Amino acid sequence: MGQDEDNWAASLPDDLLVDILGRLAPRWLAVSRSVCKAWQATIDARRLLRTDRLPLRLGGIFMYFSFHKFPEFFSRPGTPITGKMDFLPSANKKRSEVQDHCNGLLLLQDEDAGIPKYVVNPATRHWDSLGNSPPIRVMGVEFSSDGYLAFDPMVSPHYEVFMIPYIPWMREGEHLDPSIEESEWPPATFILNVFSSRTHCWEPRSFHREGDALGTIAEMRARTFCAIELPEGATSNEYTETHLGRSAKGVYFAWIYECKLQVLILDESCGKMKWMLKQDHNLVLPYHKSDQHGPWVLKDMNFNYFRHRIPTYMYRKEEAISDEDEFEWSSDDDRDIIANRDMAKEQCYDGDITILGFHPFKEIIFLLLVGLKTPLAYNYNSFKAEVLGKVKPTGYEYFMLPNDARTIEGFPYVPCWLEEIPSNTQSTKFAKKKTQSRSSS
């Protein structure tokens, strides 16, 4: 920038400049800091670019437990985040089921219909109601669909929800019309229903396929095609544990079978996507005592919602940890998440392992030792692991469920502390009304 332009930029009144810059997305605020020293000083002095409020740090892991009303949150003591969604209109009637998540926002679905219902920010407890998505018709036939959430506050303060149709499952002997069965999938042109927080309504949006179709609908139902070919063994066994997600350097895929771990990263550099092998080795995980704890704790707040269903003699008379209890936060980061331990000297755990997800900013994968109810952080480059803690909710073992029905799943969560997201005025009014009713009672 020349001297004249630099002087012009610096000559803007401070309040006017703040008003203008305050309307920019964080991405463009970061660019604006480099315009001139005066703008950089104003942005820094007024703290317009609040990186501490952006989804740039791991907050913990959301955990799903079968038949729990709300998801539990597993993290370091003292974090204010919880899975308690009691601020939603339907909180007292139905379970909160997470269908998708993205950069601090959760997409909750209707428990009965399985359709997206709310977008929720559990960090700020703000939410939006989506309303009902119109039905999706593909080649004249109504298809079921799943909702997927897209949100990046570094690019825009608005989020979108995409309804992606999937090929219907058919019972043996059932089939669609032959002309539809032989149609290519996905179609060359797709009309998807998209919800935008900018307009706060569903609208059809046309998408055009890049490249060839994966196959016909009949072939796709038979699972004979894969969009990006995986290595042999990744999906060959029903007991193989797989996970697809984003991490430090892009999109990763991991699979575990009989303590063998493979980690692959998606290579998009040559115009054609392919999986590149990153790690391939046998897991050696620490086998520890069942009562051993770690630096993370489970909020354990669902017990108070179902304790009335369990006879008092069937559980120890102890209160679950309240999500409002005060703890001392031990660290501002997770740099000690991997301990310097020699795994070759560890006694190996040989039970079932579930992949909870990838660390969003480090080459670490979170694993759950199912039999011990113990999550681990495993660095697949250094082969070092750390026990994070225990995830055994109070009284949960007394649900009369077969072992295969008592499932535990989860995903790493990165909080977004921007108060204006979501920004639906209806949700704000409801929150204020609920707060007023509580105070009056």
Question: Short description, anyone?
Answer:
By secondary structure, the chain is α+β, with helices and mostly antiparallel strands.
Considering the chains and any ligands shown, give keywords for the structure.
four-stranded antiparallel β-sheet, alpha+beta, 441 residues, disordered C terminus
Radius of gyration: 24 Å
Poorly predicted runs of 5 or more residues: 317-345, 425-441
Task: Tell me what portion of residues adopts beta-strand conformation.
Answer: 25-35%
For the biggest sheet, the summary is:
4 strands, antiparallel
The main sheet orders its strands as: 19-2-1-24
Number of DSSP strand runs: 24
Mean pLDDT: 76
**Tally the helices: what do you get?**
8
Summing up helix and strand content along with how strands pair, one would put the structural category as alpha+beta
Based on Cα principal axes, name the global outline: globular
In whole angstroms, the N-to-C terminal distance is 61 Å
- Give the fraction of residues assigned to helices: 10-25%
